[in-house]
Every structure is written in C-alpha cells, then in structure tokens.
C-alpha cells in the first residue's frame, strides 16, 4: 500500500480572533481525511481550548514554534492565519509540495499555488498583485468550508412558517458581547419564540450570559461548545448572528437571518449576502440600539413570504459541498485536449443567462426529455428552485477560468442514487471536457451511485459515459457504481 498523502494545516484560534479559522480548517481536514489523506494541525495550545473538538478528533497537533524549527515535509500545506504571509510561505516551499492559502482580508502578499477566499461577492481583482500570476483562485461561497453535516442537514430543514425558534450565535468567543444585546432585543420584540444560544466555553462573557439566559426561563437554552452546529441550527425558524463563517452556515440551511457585524472584515460579507437577498444586514453592532434590533426581528417574523424568499436565496448561494470541492481541486488536475484545466464550481443564479444560451444552441436539446426551449422567466424560476433544492447538486464546468457547461446531480432517494445531467457549450465540444467533468463528479461524490438516462440516438453521449465507466442497465439507463473503497 502506498503511503497516504499528507496535509498540514497551519492555523490558530484565540479569544481575540475566535475559532472560525480552526472550524473551517477542520471542515477541509474532514474532506481530505475521507479521501485518504493523513492530517496534522499546527496551532497554538489555546486553539484546542477555544475549539475543543479539535483536541478530541484525533488529529496530530503540533506547536508552531517547535514545528517551524523542524518542519515536516508534506504534500499540501494549508495556511489559514492572519499573521502569516508570503515570507513564511516562501520558506515553506522547501518542505511543502503545494501550498493552499485561506484568506478573507486580501491585504497582504502570498506565495501560494491556490488561494481560497469564500467571501460572497469576492472578485479576482482583490488579489491582483498579491499572489503569483499562476496561482489558482477559488473565490466565493461555492468553496465555503463547512462541516459536512450541513450538507445532510439541508434535507431536514424546517419549512417556512411561524417563528417558533430563534437561533443566536456570534462566534465562538463573542468578545463584543453581542449575544447579550441581542437577547435584550429578543425580549423587547416579544415574539413568544424559544431561543437557542450557541457559544464557546472560552467566551469572556460566558458567566454573565449564563445568568442572563437563566433569567429568561426555560424557553431560552444556552449551548456551550457545540459540536454538531448543523443539528442545532436546523430546528430554527429565524437566526441572528455575525457575518463570518456562521453566516455561510445559515445560508447552507436556508435559514432566514439578520446579520449584525462585529468585525470590520465582516462588512463586505454582510452587504453581499443582503444584496443577494440571502439575509438582512442590520449594520454594525455598535451602530444599533436594542429597540432597532427588536424592530428588525419583529418585521422578519411577521413577513413569512419574505422569509421564504430569503430562505431560497440563501440556500442557492451555499450548497454545503465547498470542502469537497476544495479537496477535489487539491487533487491532480485534469486537463482538456488544449491543456487547460477542467474543474467544477457551484452554479449560482448569475449563471442563468449562460445556461439558457447553451441550451439554445442548435441541437442542444434534441435528445432532452422536453426538447422545447424554456422562456427566460421559466428558466429563471426553475433555476432558483433547483439551486435551493437539497436533493440537487448543481455544478458549473470550468474550462480554465471560463464557464463551459453544467454538471447536475439530482438525488433519487428511492433508488439510493443520483441522476446525472450534463451539457457542454457547443463551442467547447471536442476537447474532452464532458468526460473529464464526469470524472470530477465521481471525485466530488466518491460514495454515490450514478444513473444517466440517455436517448438511444445520442451515440456521442453513450460513448462518453461508457468511457467514464458507466455500464448499460436497460431502459435507456447507464449506471456507475461507487468504487469498492469509497
């Protein structure tokens, strides 16, 4: 048996910066571990106290000072630490075959092969001159590093009805004590809803918060050092929290929410989510009064239709597979016949016009179940629903950095499988992109059973699926079973 590939994740947590960096690195570590990688963390001793699950997961933990004196070679170095930049990364080239940097500030240079910034609305220009020209940029919530349990919890989220439970979370440590302010606002709003509050045991205001929650009575529950945050959040009808990782977690569950920012680097996130209709941005905590926050919560609770629209928009932005997508991008690149890399990202509503154009090409729908071309508004309604559907994984196929087609998986629970739909833009056919996209889909969902329904006259598709390992199963179906080791 060959030695497993090794990944080292260099990150940190503290009372001041919270646990968000470690939490997103844990999500990536889980995805890499599932693919057979060996995982080690380099982080300060405080990190396991801020995020206790780090210390009990069984990963090798190394102190930064000792590790930096005698670094160990690795196949992938992941750097998620505001204190580190190109100077550290250049020295790491001596022992790391590949470097992935996770950033959300875009304020310092990096020497990396891949840069990941999961902030909504982040554009490539933000890193112009900050990374080597050959660096690969993974930008936006398509690559949001969330605990894999959020993907499963999407299927169990509550339907939009009355507000019976409110979820409150302002990060692991909440040094701004935003939770206390929001609890006052919830009390003032008099919504009659139960409240779940999540926080870490290292939070400096925890003792006072315990007393405040106890005074609210049995309808308020304080949850400390939550491991399965998805399970807690999926029971909520409305949330209020900060604009960091937690805001993307709420989107993954389609949970309507209000955002109060508690750090400067959250402002752009909050504005982008609000512009997409995925949340309401109240502004910075320091600029809001208790009565203003209460009024926002009352307005949201009374607007069921508005919350339903927000839920759909939020779920369409973050599908919970970001860590798996990043893991696939850390693997050996697959290239089209012209040498350009083929990859997958999550489809978003802004792709609507391109998708419709691909479908409008002559012959594109000749073998479709419904060969009629949809009108633009019909297509947009369908796409919004599909992006928010927890049983749909909708990918854009990228040819280099350019969209080249779609690869969609629709879950068939009764058959314990996913149906595959693929369309490559007419002008990019003949480059082997479709076959590579199918291979990437298998990497993305290695444990899934795939079914393709192909018209008997579509010989080109039959050849492509056969080459990808699919086998005829009768009734126009072609099936790919998961690998035995998956």
Helices, by number, come to 18
Side by side, the strands of the main sheet go 14-15-16-17-18-19-21-20
Proportion of β residues?
Answer: 15-25%
Mind describing the biggest β-sheet? Answer: 8 strands, mixed
- Average pLDDT value? 95
CATH superfamily of the largest domain: Glycogen Phosphorylase B
Report low-confidence residues grouped into runs of 5 or more: none
The CATH topology of the largest domain is what? Answer: Rossmann fold
How many individual β-strands? Answer: 21
What's the CATH class of the largest domain, please? Answer: Alpha Beta
Radius of gyration: 23 Å
Features:
3 domains, 18 helices, Aminopeptidase, 21 strands, 486 residues, alpha/beta, Rossmann fold, seven-stranded parallel beta sheet, eight-stranded mixed beta sheet, globular
Question: What does this entry look like structurally?
Answer:
The chain is built from 18 helices and 21 strands. With 486 residues, it is α/β, with parallel strands linked by helices. The strands form three sheets. Strands 14-15-16-17-18-19-21-20 form an eight-stranded mixed β-sheet, sandwiched between helices. The chain has a seven-stranded parallel β-sheet with strand order 3-2-1-4-5-6-7. The mean pLDDT is 95. Strand 14 and strand 15 (341-346) form a beta hairpin.
Give a topology summary.
Elements: E1 6-11, H1 20-34, E2 38-42, H2 47-50, H3 52-56, E3 60-62, H4 64-69, E4 76-80, H5 86-92, E5 99-102, E6 114-117, E7 136-139, H6 149-153, E8 165-169, H7 178-189, E9 194-199, H8 206-216, E10 220-224, H9 229-233, E11 238-241, H10 245-252, E12 257-261, H11 267-275, E13 280-284, H12 290-302, H13 304-317, H14 322-329, E14 334-335, E15 341-346, H15 352-360, H16 376-388, E16 392-399, E17 402-412, E18 417-424, H17 433-444, E19 450-453, H18 459-467, E20 471-474, E21 477-480
């Amino acid at each position: 048996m060959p030695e497993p590939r090794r990944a080292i994740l260099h990150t940190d947590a503290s009372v001041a910066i919270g646990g968000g960096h470690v939490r997103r690195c844990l999500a990536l570590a889980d995805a890499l571990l599932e693919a057979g990688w060996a995982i080690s963390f380099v982080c300060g001793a405080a990190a396991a106290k801020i995020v206790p699950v780090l210390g009990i997961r069984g990963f090798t933990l190394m102190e930064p000072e000792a590790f930096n004196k005698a670094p160990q070679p690795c196949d992938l170095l992941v750097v998620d630490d505001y204190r580190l930049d190109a100077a550290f990364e250049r020295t790491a080239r001596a022992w790391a075959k590949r470097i992935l940097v996770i950033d959300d500030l875009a304020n310092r240079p990096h020497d990396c092969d891949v840069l990941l910034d999961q902030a909504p609305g982040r554009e490539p220009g933000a890193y112009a001159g900050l990374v080597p020209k050959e660096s690969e940029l993974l930008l936006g919530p398509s690559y949001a590093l969330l605990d894999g349990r959020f993907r499963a919890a999407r299927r169990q989220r509550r339907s939009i009805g009355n507000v019976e439970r409110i979820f409150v979370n302002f990060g692991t440590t909440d040094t701004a004590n935003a939770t206390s302010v929001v609890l006052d606002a919830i009390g003032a709003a008099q919504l009659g809803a139960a409240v779940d509050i999540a926080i870490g045991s290292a939070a400096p205001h925890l003792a006072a918060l315990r007393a405040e929650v106890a005074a609210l009575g049995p309808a308020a529950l304080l949850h400390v050092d939550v491991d399965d945050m998805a399970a807690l959040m999926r029971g909520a009808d409305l949330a209020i929290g900060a604009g960091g990782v937690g805001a993307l977690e709420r989107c993954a569950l389609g949970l309507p929410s209000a955002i109060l920012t508690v750090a400067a680097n959250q402002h752009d996130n909050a504005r982008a989510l609000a512009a997409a209709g995925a949340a309401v941005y109240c502004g910075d905590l320091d600029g809001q009064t208790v009565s203003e926050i209460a009024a926002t919560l009352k307005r949201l609770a009374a607007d069921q239709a508005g919350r339903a629209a927000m839920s759909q928009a939020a779920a369409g932005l973050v599908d919970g597979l970001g860590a798996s997508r990043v893991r696939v991008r850390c693997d050996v690149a697959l290239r089209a016949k012209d040498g350009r890399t083929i990859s997958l990202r999550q489809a978003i509503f802004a792709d609507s016009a391109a998708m419709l154009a691909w479908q409008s090409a002559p012959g594109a729908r000749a073998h479709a179940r419904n060969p009629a071309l949809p009108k633009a508004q019909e297509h947009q309604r369908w796409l919004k629903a599909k992006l928010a559907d927890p049983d749909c994984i909708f990918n854009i196929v990228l040819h280099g950095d350019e969209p080249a087609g779609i690869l969609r998986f629709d879950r068939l629970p009764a058959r314990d499988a996913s149906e595959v739909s693929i369309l490559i833009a007419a002008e990019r056919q003949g480059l082997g992109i479709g076959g590579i996209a199918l291979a990437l889909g298998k990497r993305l969902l290695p444990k899934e059973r795939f079914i393709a329904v192909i018209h008997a006259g579509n010989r080109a598709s039959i050849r492509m699926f056969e080459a990808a390992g699919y086998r005829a199963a009768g009734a126009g179906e072609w099936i790919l079973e998961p690998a035995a080791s998956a």
